[in-house]
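Work package 3, deliverable 3.1, input record:
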Amino acid sequence: MRLLDRKLLRELRHVAGQAAAIVIVLACAVATTVMSFGVLRSLDETRSQYYQRYRFADVFAAVYRVPESAAESIRRLPGVAAVETRLVADVAVRLEDVAEPISGRLISLPERGEPEANAIALRQGRSIGASDAEEVVVAENFASARGLGPGSRITVHINGRKRELAVVGVALSPEYIYTLGAGMIAPDDRRFGIFWTGRQVLEAALGARDQFNDLAVRLKQTASASDATREIEAVLAPYGAADVHGRKRQPSHAFVSAMLHQIAGVGRIVPAIFLLVAAFLAHTMLGRLVEVQRRQIGLMKALGIGDGAIGWHYLKLVLMLGAVGIAMGIAAGAILGIGLVRIYAGFFHFPFLRYQPDVASILAAGMVSILAVSAGALRGVRRAISLMPAVALASPTPAAYGQTWLDRVGRGRSSGVARMILRYLARWPLRAALTVAALSLAVALQISMLFSFDALDYIIDHYARAQVADFTLVFSSALPRAAAGEIGRWPGVVSVEGFRALPVHLRSRGRDRVVNLTGLAPTGRLQRLLDANLAPVSVPLHGLALPSKLAALLEVKEGDTVAVEPVGSRAGFELPVARIVEQYIGLGAYVSLDLLDSLPEGPRISGAYLLTDPSRRADFLRGLTNQAMLAGINERSAVLASFRGTMTRTLSIIVSFFVAFAGVAAFFIAFSSARITLAEREREFATLASLGFTVAEMRAILAGELAILVALALPLGCILGRALAWVIVQRLDTELYRVPLVISLQTVGIAALIVVGAALVSIRAVARRLQCLDLPAVLNATL
Amino acid sequence: MYSVRGLTRSYRIGPDEIHALRGVDLDLEAGELIALLGPSGSGKSTLLNLLGGLDRPDAGQIVFRGGDLARLDDRALALYRRRHVGFVFQSYNLLPSLTARENVELACDAAERPMAAADALDVVGLRSRMDQFPGQLSGGEQQRVAVARAIAKRPDILLCDEPTGAVDSRTGVQVLEVIERCNRELGALTVIVTHNTAIAAIAQRVLLLAGGNIAEAPPSSPRRNAREISW
């Protein structure tokens, strides 16, 4: 058989373009798998190691104020391995010579020894000393963004009082791989930072001696997080309802998990599409090769070579191309994976991160790739096996054409060239259908990737319409409602609306979710509720407004009753669901501010929405520096910019890779189709040349045929793209954020342009051969 | 009509250079019926392809109506073929996806004063089968459609390369009758390439090609009609 192999290798040059297409598309499939799962594994393992090394907690609890003695009861719970009690406070931060508002979170560290849970990874300097010195360790991302390091000083407003803290170290924490502050929708390293200080410093500042308001619990390996959560909740119950939850609801962990989930999803869906395209290319290439070599097949059979050997001979060719594609894909996937891990390392905050290939996914990608091209080759192999020698050796009869329904429709109106194109397509409908299907997959892939920018625009638009206020202030403790009037007199403030936000348990039919309940002024205009069509919805006077996702999680609809229990309080109340609204980022519940006046503290506000005069922004910001009552300040434009920046950065990485890959696939599908047309109809093109057709006119025939296939593929691709986008939307639907299925005309246009562009380039590549046609040789060749 | 001077064409096949034409001189007049006779590889098809603008010479001139075909670019050569040349090949070379009539119409598209496709098919006796596809026609019928396609544009030169090579003798005679009639009725300069001496008998002039050189055969026996010959 070695001679046969040599023959096949030599003849490979006749289908070199298509062979290259199979190799490259397959390499794309393998590369996307290797890249995605390599990145997935690298991030996942790095995170696990990070968690383990720095004792990341399994269960978290936010409480109001609980005496330290309660921690002992938790330590004695059967599944609990370690308990770290902490004080956590959101604070306003001032840096020298920085006008813009900065928020921060102060977290206590034990003065002696390492924390039992949620330790910090020191990057510079030292940890806080074993005294009540007012020292602080700053999170590395904020320190880098603001140029802070050991020796720097910061001012914070804690509990209404200004304190100056000395920076002694810079650190990272497994709790803040992805850093979000209150009211933030994306990380903003310049405007929000994490700070660790001594427990005594915070106890003194908050007046919480021997008390804690935050709990990090590590569990024994065999313990169940849900059981432990229930037991801890029971221990904390006497001190008011607590927000106890596992890692699933820890913001940083949840975000990273969502990202990993997304990478895994894309890593499964996209390669599958490339594999389908590779199977299609193998199908067309081998089909053509067997047709071109039918006489040789007949001869080999006449010489006594068995059917099986001939089938294997052709299958081997495809397997060989598959092997080359897989090898290229593994190499490309590893290189891309390393690059992507580097990008993610800059985006997430890990103390260490290195690329680790995922061997299982490489093996799976290789096996599935081989199966895909083999499946694609099946028809050609079967044809080679089933050809009778006598039939194979005989001259082929002219292709049997007939009138098509298109002829009847276009009778008398279509040109000879148009009829040639249509009849050729109608003569091989399966091939045309497969080409259309493959091209539509390329369109669909583009749409399913590019739509994420539309969804992002929609989310931002939704957020911007809801959040009319250009500043949101969060107070360090709730203030009387009259505080809003006072804020209204600050320089630069045009209008003020107070709000009251508090974490609450919402319970219904055994379902329980802890969310922020925000009391809004019923006549307010600075923070609006919107429905899915971006239309404003008024704040209900006698009930809850819930985002549709939260309503679905609680399994409630308008008119149902939900139990509301504020965290830290023992008194709950019930409210009907009055409105279902839409919210794409986070989950919150809304009521009229007046409804919260009946809470034990009486009529209060915990923050305010402000509209300011842009021309007096500097005055306004200067005025804020003296307001010790503030724990957080969010500026709408900065929030939107950081959200757009973060999302665009992460989306661009993934999307640009896959859009480029899909463009390559589209080129090769179109190239393969045009190349086959040219190869099969070389004699027809030579005949046309003899009749006086110019190269441009013949190119138009090739282009016309492809144009029809592309035109059919575009609408089909849009439908498939929408379906694919829907699948992706379902995967991205988490409690952190939801992605609306919005596909803009621009996205469809870009996808169409890329595929049409790929088709045009492929026509150009194929049509070059028209100029090199050896007319005498082709025209005088015997059939 | 054609003045060919010093026409040279060679091909490289592997390490060998094959000299298909070695400085051929030739004059052809409108309305003539010429047979190019010679054994395989003598250069007759090469000469036909050069006359038809399917190929370019290495050296020499082919002057047609004052212009040298050797100097034309691809586009101009395509226009020359479109306006002035009708080809009939041994292998018919019909477009399988077009009916007999459509094949003929396609060639007429750019012609200045083409015949109606049906009339051209009438000349070759295939009017009744004009809506058939090539796959539904016999070899002889396909070759007659090819002739109809070649003449429908009323070409100045009709080039026939072994037009009977793929059909049996009886059908071949029918094809030659059609070519002869077209030459007579349309007045097109007709060149038939053949290695069959019997066929050369229908020509006014017989040109002999051997080893890349051309010579005119002396007039011998009287010219015969196609229906009078056989092989």
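Chain B has seven helices and ten strands.
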